[in-house]
Design goal:
single chain, 430 residues, alpha/beta, Alpha-Beta Plaits, eleven-stranded mixed sheet, six-stranded parallel sheet, 36% helix, binds L-homoserine
């Protein structure tokens, strides 16, 4: 029997990940051919700037400056979208699907905001969108949720799913770097998004959380219903207080099924016990705890960003497309679908205040919390530094987020409170 022609790939974008895909596909091409029973070949690569000097030499005619060259080429079976951003990527992917091409994308923002329509279009056109690289870099979490855990009701997914922010928190906590220094390092290492504000403001993790929640619960979670907070306001002092209290601060994505029919999806810096395995996930590493009603608790760990790990996931999608062995599109099943309003979500909290060192301050703070019905678990006060008041940390009992937020807003208005309070959840991981 004649061997099938090599699968023809059009690569859109030659940034950090695109370069990794090109290199690693070349490196393991023979291995992939043997495993898949089909060869894969990059036919054309679209770059933003054709004149830019490059580390590798491409075959004559392979580089192009036009995305249309991929869409219009009927020989191309699969387009790999690695251009990032929303508008241009949406137009490109929509047109590629319209032409019946298979799409592989690492673009979590695109899927979080437009996944519902794109998957519906792909279904209509009888083609596929693969997106393993969109969540948690090199960790195969998409296929895990879709395939390996398909026999489970997913009860919760709790994860560290932004490598850049985890890198920053780790470097601040362990090496004493400032926030800005740590962010600059993450940028240089190629972990950060083109717009790194998405890494630190929780937006990137929220995009990924929408994808995981939607896959788990069968209807596309609206991005605007995800509660998102980032790490920008945290100081080294918060990481130290947390450590002294026996906790570690992580930017957590939390996806939970509540009372059997509501979905909670949120991204927030949170305190987790330092003895918990997630607390030892450092640097660019991501980790995701998935709890299913059949399997119980599972944990997935690996590099969440960077050229090689992310390209490993892209290549796995290409291999799936080559063998067409799995259904990796989004299959709506509508079993659940009501997002839990964030205000109703319950947890314990860490509240740091910078207050005037004068009598009656604690009574005022405790009074507001007491009237709101929020109990105090414990409290620490340090001596006042020069001109900045005294830091106090109040650990709060289980309470609804809305109630705590209103009480904290009232506390922030007290004349004795100097800076905007820092409020973090203490995440229950059991
Ligand atoms: N900027 C992202 C991160 C890249 O730091 O996790 C992977 O999505």
């Amino acid at each position: 029997m004649a061997e099938e022609r090599p699968l023809q790939i059009g690569l859109a974008g030659l940034g950090n990940v695109g370069l990794g895909v090109y290199r690693n596909l070349a490196r393991n091409r023979e291995l992939l051919r043997e495993r898949n029973g089909r060869d894969m070949e990059i036919r054309r690569v679209v770059v933003r700037d054709l004149a830019k000097p490059r580390e590798i030499t491409f075959p004559e005619g392979m580089l192009s400056g036009r995305l249309d060259d991929l869409i219009e080429d009927d020989e191309i079976d699969i387009v790999v979208e690695l251009i990032g951003g929303i508008d241009e990527a949406l137009d490109f992917v929509t047109r590629a699907i319209g032409k019946g091409k298979t799409v592989v994308t690492a673009n979590k923002a695109l899927l979080a905001l437009h996944g519902k329509d794109l998957f519906a279009l792909a279904e209509e056109r009888g083609t596929m969108i693969y997106f393993e690289a969109a969540v948690a870099g090199g960790i195969p979490i998409i296929k895990t949720v879709q395939e390996s855990l398909v026999g489970n009701n997913i009860q919760s997914i709790i994860g560290i799913i932004n490598g850049t922010s985890n890198y920053i928190l780790t470097r601040m906590a362990k090496e004493g770097l400032s926030y800005e220094e740590a962010l600059e390092e993450a940028r240089k290492l190629g972990y950060a998004e083109a717009d790194p504000s998405l890494d630190v403001n929780g937006g990137d993790a929220a995009h990924k959380a929408v994808i995981l929640a939607s896959l788990s619960y069968g209807s596309w979670v609206p991005f605007d219903q995800v509660h998102v907070e980032g790490i920008e306001r945290l100081g080294k002092v918060d990481l130290q207080f947390a450590r002294d209290l026996g906790y570690t601060v992580k930017l957590l994505a939390v996806i939970k099924l509540i009372d059997g029919d509501r979905i909670e999806v949120r991204v927030q810096p949170s305190l987790i016990p330092s003895t918990h395995i997630l607390a030892s996930v450092n640097g660019v590493f991501n980790a995701i705890l998935v709890r299913g009603d059949v399997v119980g608790e599972t944990l997935f760990y690996g590099r969440g960003a960077g050229q090689d790990p992310t390209s490993s996931s892209v290549i796995s999608d290409l291999a799936d497309a080559a063998t067409a062995s799995c259904r990796c599109g989004f299959v709506p099943h509508g079993l659940y679908g009501k997002p839990l309003p964030q205000e109703e979500s319950v947890s314990q909290y860490y509240l740091r205040l910078q207050v005037a060192d004068q009598p009656g301050v604690l009574a005022q703070v405790a009074g507001i919390l007491g009237r709101a019905g929020v109990g105090i678990l414990s409290m620490i006060q340090r001596e006042a530094g020069e001109g900045e008041g005294a830091p106090i940390v109040v650990m709060l009992h289980d309470a609804k987020y809305g109630v705590v937020r209103r009480a904290v807003a009232e506390i922030a208005e007290l004349p004795c409170v100097h800076h905007e309070p820092v409020l973090m959840r203490v995440e229950r991981l059991d």
